[in-house]
Amino acid sequence: MSGPSHRLALEILLDGPLSRAELARRVELSAGSLTRLTKPMLESGLLVEVPGGPADPRVGRPSQPLDIVPTSHHFVGVKLTSDTALGVLTTLRAEVIASEERPLPSHSPEEVADLVVELARSLSDGRPGITGIGVSVGGHVAGSGDVIHGDFLDWEDVSFQQLLAERTDVQVVVSNDVTAVTEAIHWFGAGRGISRFCLLTIGAGIGYGLVVHDKLVHTTEAGLGLIGHYPLDPDGPLCDRGHHGCASAMLTTDAITSQISAALGRPVRYDECLDLAKNGDPEARRIVGAAGHALGRLIAAASNFTMPEAVMLGGEGVQLATVAQDELQTGLQQDRHPSAIPPPLILQDPSFTQWARGAAVIAIQTFVLGR
């Protein structure tokens, strides 16, 4: 589809069901033109009339809004970590209907590509053919799908999208993981309808995504981890680049667990670190509190520079914002003007399923927008 037909389908996908009158207003079409354009989409099964619309006074009967048929297409999204591939099968609206996790056999790009295709086949088994596969990777990914630098896979200049395309006839796309999850929030999540928001993720790394004027801010530097070395505490611990108290040194799950493990003299997992802090362990409380304060300062910096309508907080380490809520608010207020309105903070699901769903959304966008 192209032109008005494409715009109609996109409006219904993102905001449907929509009445014909609302669709005509949005796309600036006459009632006759709208009927002519939507008829083939209804006949093909892409669109469907749904009940429940308000009464139309002109004809004296309820209107029948138009909606997309989400199951008309299916997509696979795969999130790659240092040791696993987590895949999901979604509808055209990114609703997760199946998930599966596999350990990586190695970091060999060829073996990982084999696993991704095998995972996609397993997820789609017994269902109609899938329309697209999206894969998200932590690191610097070019628009061509080449992984310039894969932080957690030890990849340099890997033509990963090409490796996948050689193994399947399905359209494939490879993206930076934070870019992918930002788009998922933007199109199908808490960011829908918000013209300007930013996403901060804390976990194995520190990520940042930005939507302005209802569009993701694209840059060739996405995935370089630039925000990860933003200074937050001059007296904080050192990162691997020698920075005192940068975001990576203060907020990653590894930074927090290593500090608390050293303080307690035994290995401690991230969830246990947060539980210890909640239960009043003095060392855990001190370290988690300092991390919460640093997170507040990072949110303040993002808010001061981009003035978002909302700040999304995500990643597997996001529960830090709840456990260290008081310290976070102190750090946030410290670096904001007293008259500034606090930005709404919206916590995202910390599970890796959301990262895999983000990869599926990149595949959905590639299909819908014709990229």
Automatic annotation (TrEMBL):
Q: Which protein are we looking at?
A: ROK family transcriptional regulator
Name the InterPro entries for this protein. Answer: ATPase_NBD (IPR043129), ROK (IPR000600), WH-like_DNA-bd_sf (IPR036388), WH_DNA-bd_sf (IPR036390)
Taxonomic lineage is: Bacteria, Bacillati, Actinomycetota, Actinomycetes, Propionibacteriales
Please, which domain of life does this record's source organism belong to? Bacteria
Q: Report the Gene3D superfamilies cross-referenced here.
A: 3.30.420.40, Winged helix-like DNA-binding domain superfamily/Winged helix DNA-binding domain (1.10.10.10)
> Transmembrane segments in this chain: where?
none
Q: Which family does it belong to?
A: Belongs to the ROK (NagC/XylR) family.
